[in-house]
Amino acid sequence: MLIEKTVSGFIEELASNSPAPGGGSAAALAGSLGAALSIMVCNFTEGKPKFSGVQDEISQIKQKGLALKNDLTDYIDADTNAFDEVMKAYKLPKDTDAEKTLRSEKIQEATIGASLPPLKVAESCVEVLKLSLRVLTIGNPNTACDAAVSGVTAYAGFQGAIFNVKINLSSIKDETFLQNVRDKILVLQDEADKTNQLILDRAREVIG
Amino acid sequence: MLIEKTVSGFIEELASNSPAPGGGSAAALAGSLGAALSIMVCNFTEGKPKFSGVQDEISQIKQKGLALKNDLTDYIDADTNAFDEVMKAYKLPKDTDAEKTLRSEKIQEATIGASLPPLKVAESCVEVLKLSLRVLTIGNPNTACDAAVSGVTAYAGFQGAIFNVKINLSSIKDETFLQNVRDKILVLQDEADKTNQLILDRAREVIG
After folding, report:
1. What are the UniProt keywords, alphabetically (chains A, B) (predicted)?
2. Which domains can be identified in chain B, with CATH numbers?
3. Is B7's CB within 8 Å of A11's CB?
């Protein structure tokens, strides 16, 4: 598993001349860093009398953050595994017409399968962005910088995941699936861009 | 060392209730992912007859990318170590006037020291952004998505590092140092924003 590699080993693997892991797994990792940093801010706010007015919300944010961190960390491997299925489908025999048809179907199936992990990563990163904005606003100001980095890493995870969804869409033929995903991307992109801008505005106020 | 932890272990450590690692190390890691992905694109372009016209530049980009990846990976730990020095300085005794003066000096020294790793990370991320833009433009189009994710992770690394420089500046008293760093930030921010925008424009053309 990729997440059991060392940090330096993962970076080496990413840089290597093998097609996976690539940008999809890196995007999931960036999102995981964002989730982890929002949790960190909760940990520095939780139980402190100074922030007694926000304890309930902080506790809810922490629970959501933990679930998002776990999901996003799982997607570091899930993205690479889904990509491997596409590579496998392309390697199927194509000597007879029957083989060609089967191969083509399997490539379609695997490519649709490969578009789902980054779509899920993009959705989770939008949720992380919302948490980043809240912890930057109500969390312990000593960790404002960590909250802001939570935001920028989650936004990078979002953007990277969307690139990966789109690259898969370019080889998918199912028009209904394509339209559904394109509609979803528009909604997510708008939400991500707006939340990211609010985080940057708030960071400028708090950090300078 | 943080980079010898597993990826999942690093994420846990980031989320934990200890002040370090925090956003500074996460920013350095985001930058490392960016450098690694630009190198990956070089590896898929190098030695391919189809891209014979760009082999010299790809080879130069790869060399620069490898150096930046190594530097940024080192800064994952260097950032946390420099932050630990600030924490140590704050824990110095402050019972007598002499102790107070010494403690205050050591805090200033350590805080200046802590602003340097993220400043170096920010500079390196700007260099990674330039490489991302070039590999997205001249590299193997099969890895366009990885080139684009290289860009967004490097930009997140840049923004995160700048937050960390600025938070340190707020407790530094040396006016000459402050002015030098503020001037440097302005130049870097402009370069990073412009290169990031060019990467996003190019990604839209290539990926959709």
Report:
1. Hydrolase
2. 20-206 (1.20.120.680)
3. no
